Amino acid sequence: MVADGAKLGGPFQVRAAAAWKVVLPNCFAEEIRNNPNLDFKETQHIEFPTTLPGWEGMNEGLRHDRLFTDLVRIKLTQSLNYITEDMVDEADYALNLWMSEDESSWKTYNVRQVGFDVVARITSRVFAGKGLSRNEAYLRIAKENTATSFIAGYTLLQFPRFLWPFLNRVMPYCRTVRRQLNDATHLLRPSIEATIKQYEDGDIKKGPKSGNALGWLIEIQKGRPLELVSFVGAQLSLSMASIENT
C-alpha cells in the first residue's frame, strides 16, 4: 500500500491501526520538521492508552513539560564524553557473558536475544548505575517492557476506545505491563531514594559527570513535578528508546 502510494509522487493516505495516516514525500521534511501541529507526543497518546493504570512509564516519556526531552538534550547529549568509559566497561562485561573465550568450542546464538541483552546492560549502566545493570530481574524488565508495551497497545487498538479501561485490566499483555511497572518501581526505589538524599545533603556536585539519569532528572527539574513514577518512567522510556533505535 505504501509502495503504491509512493508512485503517485505526492502526499497520500494509508489506513493504520489507530487512524488514517498522511504520508508526505521527503521534500516536505524541512518545511514540516518544526511544525508545532505535528507533535509526536500527541500521536502516541492517541495510539497508546497512556492515561490508564500501568502505562505511567510511557506517559512520563511523553510529558508536555518536556522533562524527558530536556533530560536527553541537556544531560545525556552533553555527557557522552564522560559515559564512554562506563559503556565500554559494561559492553566488555556483557559480551564476555555470552561469547566464550574458549576458541575450541562453537556455540549458536540468537542475535536478537544477544543484542537486546547487551544494549539493556549498557543503557542500564549509564542511566541507572552499575548495580542495576547487573541485576537480572531489572534487566529482564528493561528488555521485555518494550515489546510487551507495543504488543499490548496494538492489541487494544483492535477494540473501541471506550472499552480500553476495562480491557486494560483483564488482557494478559496489559496486566504484564502493569506488573513490569510495579516490579521496576520496587527495584529502582532504593537507588532513587538514595540519589534524592545525596542531593538533599549536598553530597553530589552538579554537572555532566554527576551521577546518572536519576540525578540528571533532579538537576533539570526546575519546578516541574518529579515523583517516584517520574524516575521509573524515565528509566523505562530511555531503555525503550535505546533498544528500539539500536
TrEMBL record:
It comes from the Eukaryota. The keyword Metal-binding applies. Belongs to the cytochrome P450 family. This is Cytochrome P450. GO terms for molecular function: heme binding; iron ion binding; monooxygenase activity; oxidoreductase activity, acting on paired donors, with incorporation or reduction of molecular oxygen. It comes from Pyrenophora teres f. teres (strain 0-1). The keyword Oxidoreductase applies. Gene3D superfamilies: Cytochrome P450 (1.10.630.10). Keywords: Heme, Iron, Metal-binding, Monooxygenase, Oxidoreductase. Its cofactor is heme. InterPro entries: Cyt_P450_sf.
